[in-house]
Design a protein that fits this description.
By secondary structure, this protein is mainly β. Helix content is 4%, strand content 48%. It has 1 helix and 10 strands. The chain has one helix spanning 105-109; strands at residues 3-7, 10-13, 18-25, 33-39, 46-51, 57-59, 67-72, 77-82, 91-99, 118-123. The protein has a 6-stranded mixed sheet with strand order 2-10-9-4-5-6, with no helix packed on it. The longest helix is centred in the last third of the chain and has 5 residues, at 105-109. 27% of the residues are buried. The mean pLDDT is 95.
Amino acid sequence: QVRLLESGGGSVQAGGSLRLSCEVSGYTNCRWDMSWHRQAPGKEREFVARIDTDGSTKYEGSVKGRFTISQDNAKGTLYLQMNNLKPEDTAKYYCKIEATSSSNWKCIDALDTRGQGTRVTVSS
């Protein structure tokens, strides 16, 4: 069973930086498109960033230019570098397995797996 474990959250002042990590464990002999999402208190979960296996990336408009998604396949870890943080970035951040081109059922079975999240609080 594939599991995702986020870390790196914390409390920072506006303008600060944090780097979130998402470690993949279990069956890891797969290549997945992966993403970060966040959910602020009282709001619905929203997309933040995505990285595909070909290295292409997508970002939600408000984080473009401030956040950078990357991955280290050798370490089985997804990252989200967050710079110039704003109070509106306060949320719980989750990583997610989005898609795969593999026909391996173990890779397909892991789709939509999410972690428990890591909390980010940005004070003004």
